């Protein structure tokens, strides 16, 4: 084929909200699905694509990684990237989606603001598969199923008081006893200052983020977020019509002084102060206090995403921003997805007293309530002391798996990955040599059965040095060692291809 043949179907000029990464991905996928690119055709290298299209290499790598993960293309060692011989079922779904996207009549029936939802990261559509080294994945195989079954049976036993009510509705804000249990739990474990009335049960932390951003923001408002950061937060902010101000994170976490200097009109900040995602830093006390003072002066808001603070491996837990603030300007988000299991889809907000009714009304519109039965089980799990014991046991288990990952990387790949051993969370970040491409490496690892997140996929504006995010929560030491061995081979092949 002639040089730069692919520019014939790639058009990066667009006025919609999709990123360059998404446009490249979708246009390659469309070319494959419509037959412009045929099975076995070789794609340009990421370096060739980036140079021809005038984009960063991380952008090209991200697009290729998504194409690989969804089965559109395959990477062959030492040969390059090729269109897959057989397209998976997800390709058929994508084909239907793209057909609708190209149909002007269909688009004309959809509100213009719906285009903001096109910015949802592809990674958020992928099921939480327990493949090394999936991030944010708790040890689901080690969950005490027998104990959960026993609690459930006790609630549904013949003659159990109130068993029939488990099948009915509860308050829109959530099952009252569960909200009381959460308030007590947060007061003891996180220093949160709240009453049960301030707790609102939601269907996962992502729904909580969506509710909070839509209620606290008007279209066009500036909002501060961490860079790099959680794609779900960015998606919620974009869907709410916010103008995103990305604030680079350093070793002390989020820096409100920098954020205020670069985005002076912002009145909302979304942060993970206890364990910043993905870098794992804890926001320093000075910066936490400065952020609270900023919200007070601006009459603004802080959304505190406290997604996995239960898992800290050294030092004492830091007090929540909400507790330091006294519950005036902070909306606190917590979840049971990490401490129990992700399929439960239960999380909670702690909202300031003046906006309780607003959040409850929004919860009614967004889904009326979360399932009563699951809420009652979780309440019983907490009040009978099972949650505290379970968290302590899992913290020990994760500490062992964290150490296994540190040792395996140190023994097998000491020269290729500089591990940043975070004291919190279910994953750690490993920095690569500065001229390496984390997206290409991630795609090559996917072809070998690993799921490794490149930091380039998590950046909002600022380009970071290349790095890989490695989850350890759901993987035994044996699986971790096997995964590291496979990763070592991937890195060796990558190094050899560069020489």
Write the layout of secondary structure elements.
Elements lengths: L19 H14 L12 H8 L3 H13 L3 E4 L3 E4 L5 H14 L1 H5 L36 H12 L19 H15 L8 E4 L2 H12 L5 E6 L3 H9 L3 E6 L7 H7 L5 E4 L13 H14 L2 E5 L15 H5 L4 E6 L11 E4 L5 H12 L4 H12 L2 H27 L5 E3 L6 E5 L6 H10 L5 E2 L12 E5 L5 H22 L1
Parallel strand pairs: 4-5, 4-6, 6-7, 7-8
Antiparallel strand pairs: 1-2, 3-9, 8-9, 10-11, 11-13, 12-13
Helix pairs in contact: 1-3, 1-4, 2-3, 3-16, 7-14, 8-9, 15-17
Would you kindly provide a written description of the structure presented here, covering whatever features stand out?
The protein contains 17 helices and 13 strands. The chain has 499 residues and is an alpha/beta fold. The chain folds into three domains: 5-119, Arc Repressor Mutant, subunit A, CATH 1.10.10; 145-384, Aspartate Aminotransferase, domain 2 (3-Layer(aba) Sandwich), CATH 3.40.640.10; 394-498, Aspartate Aminotransferase, domain 1 (Alpha-Beta Complex), CATH 3.90.1150. The strands form three sheets. A seven-stranded mixed β-sheet has the order 3-9-8-7-6-4-5, sandwiched between helices. A four-stranded antiparallel β-sheet has the order 10-11-13-12, with helices on one face. A two-stranded antiparallel sheet has the order 1-2. Helix 2 packs across helix 3 (57-69), helix 7 (176-190) crosses helix 14 (372-383) and helix 15 (386-412) runs parallel beside helix 17. It is globular.
Strand fraction: 5-15%
The helical percent reads 40-55%
Q: Using the CA coordinates, give the radius of gyration.
A: 23 Å
Please identify the top-level CATH class of the largest domain.
Alpha Beta
Per DSSP E runs of 2 or more residues, the count of β-strands stands at 13
């Amino acid at each position: 084929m002639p040089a730069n043949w692919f520019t014939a179907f790639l058009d990066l000029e667009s006025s919609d909200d999709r990123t360059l990464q998404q446009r490249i991905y979708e246009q390659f996928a469309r070319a494959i699905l419509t037959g412009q690119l045929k099975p076995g055709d070789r794609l340009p290298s990421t370096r060739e694509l980036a140079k021809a299209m005038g984009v960063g290499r991380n952008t090209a790598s991200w697009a290729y990684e998504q194409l690989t993960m969804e089965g559109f293309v395959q990477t062959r060692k030492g040969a390059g990237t090729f269109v897959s011989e057989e397209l998976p079922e997800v390709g058929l779904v994508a084909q239907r989606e793209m057909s609708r996207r190209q149909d002007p009549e269909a688009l004309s029936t959809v509100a213009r603001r719906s285009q903001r939802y096109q910015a949802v990261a592809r990674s958020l559509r992928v099921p939480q598969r327990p493949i090394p080294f999936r991030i944010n994945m708790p040890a689901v195989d080690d969950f005490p199923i027998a104990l959960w079954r026993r609690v459930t049976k006790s609630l549904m036993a013949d003659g159990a008081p109130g068993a029939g009510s488990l099948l009915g509705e509860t308050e829109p804000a959530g099952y009252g006893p569960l909200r009381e249990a959460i308030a007590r739990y947060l007061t003891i474990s996180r220093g949160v200052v709240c009453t049960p009335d301030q707790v609102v049960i939601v269907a996962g932390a992502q729904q909580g983020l969506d509710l909070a951003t839509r209620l606290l923001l008007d279209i066009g408002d500036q909002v501060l977020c961490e860079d790099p950061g959680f794609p779900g937060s960015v998606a919620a902010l974009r869907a709410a019509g916010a103008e995103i101000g990305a604030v680079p994170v350093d070793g002390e976490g989020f820096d409100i002084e920098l954020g205020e200097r670069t985005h002076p009109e912002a009145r909302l900040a979304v942060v993970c102060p206890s364990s910043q995602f993905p870098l794992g830093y804890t926001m320093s006390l000075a910066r936490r206090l400065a952020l609270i003072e900023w919200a007070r002066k601006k009459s603004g808001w802080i959304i505190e995403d406290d997604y996995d603070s239960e898992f800290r491996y050294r030092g004492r837990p830091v007090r929540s921003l909400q507790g330091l603030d006294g519950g005036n300007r902070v909306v606190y988000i917590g979840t049971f997805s990490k401490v129990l299991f992700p399929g439960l889809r239960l999380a909670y907000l702690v909202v300031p007293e003046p906006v309780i009714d607003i959040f409850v009304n929004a919860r009614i519109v967004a889904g009326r309530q979360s399932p009563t039965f699951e809420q009652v089980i979780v309440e019983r799990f907490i009040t009978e002391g099972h949650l505290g014991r379970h968290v302590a046991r899992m913290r020990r288990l994760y500490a062992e798996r964290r150490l296994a990952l540190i040792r395996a990387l140190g023994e097998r790949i000491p020269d290729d990955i500089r591990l940043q051993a975070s004291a919190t969370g279910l994953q750690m970040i490993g920095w690569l040599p500065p001229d390496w491409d984390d997206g290409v490496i991630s795609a090559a690892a996917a072809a070998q059965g690993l799921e490794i997140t490149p930091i380039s996929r998590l950046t909002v504006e600022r380009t970071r040095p290349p790095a890989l995010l490695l989850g350890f929560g759901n993987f035994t030491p044996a699986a971790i060692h096997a995964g590291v061995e496979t990763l070592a081979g991937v890195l060796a092949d990558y190094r050899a291809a560069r020489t």
